[in-house]
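I can't quite decide. Please look over this sequence plus C-alpha cells:

:::
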Amino acid sequence: MMKNKTIQFSLIFGLLVLLISACAPAAGNSADAQSGGGSGEDLQAADGVVWQLVEYGPEGAMQPVLADTQVTLKFDFSQHTLGGSAGCNSYSGEFDLSGSSLTTGPIMSTMMACLQDGVMEQEQAVSGLLDTLSGYQLSGDQLVLIAEGGQLIFTRQ
C-alpha cells in the first residue's frame, strides 16, 4: 500500500515538474530579444521621452530633416498614443506594440499652411512612413522606426 502511494506521488510530482518547465520561456525568447534588434532595449522604457527626427526615407536614399524644422515624436504608453511636431503641423495617432512589432492607426494632423520650402513635402513623407510602421529598433539614444517605404531615425532629445 505504501509503495503504491510513493509511486503515485512520484508520478504526480514528475508531471508537475514537466508542466512547470513547459510553461517557462525558451532560452533567447525574452522580451529583450523580441524588442526589435539592436541592443534589445524595450521601447516602453522610453515612455514620455521626446525623440527628434534626424533623417527619413527609403534605405539608400535617406533625407535629412530640413534646416530650421524640428520633427519630434513622443509615446504615451498609458494611452497607447503617439504624437509630436511634424515641422510645422502637429500630429497624433494610436499605436500598438507587441514585441518588436510597432504599428499605428491613422495619423491625424493639423492643417496649417507651411510657408518654408519643402516643409509640406517633408511632413507628407514623414506621415506616410508613420502610417505604415511595422517595427522598431532601439539602441541607446537612437530609435529607428521601420515602415513599408523606409525608415525614420530619431535621437533622444
